[in-house]
Amino acid sequence: MKNQTAKWVLGHKITTHGTSGDFDLMLAETPAHIQVPPPHFHNNFKESFLIIDGEMEFLVNGEVKIVKAGESLDIPPKTLHTFSNNSNLPCKWINIHSPKGFKGFFDAVGIPAEIENAREKSHTPEIVQKVIATAEAFDMNIKVQ
């Protein structure tokens, strides 16, 4: 399938891929030292991460997990989580949400990759507020501390 869209979302370059199954599929590239998204959980979505290059630090229900290239992590519904690339190298990873429906979040808040300075524009205070306002419509429940 050649149904791909690349956008910058909160500092991550997200390329969504159309699927015929009941899941959303994306490839992401996270530059070094990116600290997002805010801690959140999904009531209905199951989420899986597969690290292709580099490593990602996850916080899952208060427990820190470092996931390296070739490793994966499953996040069941109602599991509080966030992640960041705290390393000095970029990280490339695959993300799956099941059932289908979370792709719309990336479409709603992402900055098209071809726009100048899209990465920087993807995490301005205005975009962060848009994420907070939009998240619940996509079953992303942000935990405010």
UniProtKB/TrEMBL annotation:
It holds the Pfam family Cupin_2. InterPro entries: Cupin_2, QDO-like, RmlC-like_jellyroll, RmlC_Cupin_sf. This is Cupin. It comes from Aequorivita aquimaris. Residues 36-96 form the Cupin type-2 domain.
